[in-house]
Amino acid sequence: MAVSPDTAQSLIKELFFMGRAIRAALSHPEEGDLLPGGIGVLGSLEARGPCRQVDLAADLCISQSTLSRHVAELVSSGNIARHADPDDGRATLIQITADGSALLRCVRVSRARALQAALANWSEVEAEQAATVVQKLRNSLAAVAHHTAVGERRPVSTESQESDV
């Protein structure tokens, strides 16, 4: 193994704290009205286009019941719409609405500005290096998650990996 157990544990701890810091520093006021992860659902749905909930849940690597709570909330707020699947009248497709797209754009701009402010003392090169390392880590984790899911016959898609949230 190239990485020691202590280093792996330290990295896990830092990633946990990074997640908390990201939520605290980059949150947008309108996100407070949504369940945590709601903006991620919108971003993935925007990237994927109209789809069935089961497919979006697989993309996001979350349970269908968790996604159902998000979808119910986002439909109620007008950010997602449901309509019949033209290929299967028994099924329903979900898609992002104009209001959902507008909210997503607003949140993305707000988050980018907040991150720019947080990185005010960083050079462009340092920020690019950080992005490269974080992307490498994400890809390594996604590959392991995909391998594990295939072995357990759980659906995992990497489509949501490219959504800009």
Automatic annotation (TrEMBL):
GO-annotated biological processes: response to stress
Spans traversing the lipid bilayer: none
Highest rank taxon of the organism: Bacteria
Domain (HTH marR-type) ranges: 8-139
GO molecular function: DNA-binding transcription factor activity
PROSITE patterns: HTH_MARR_2
Annotated signal sequence range: none
InterPro entries attached to this UniProt entry: HTH_MarR-typ, MarR/SlyA-like, WH-like_DNA-bd_sf, WH_DNA-bd_sf
Descriptive protein name: Winged helix-turn-helix transcriptional regulator
Protein's organism: Nocardia uniformis
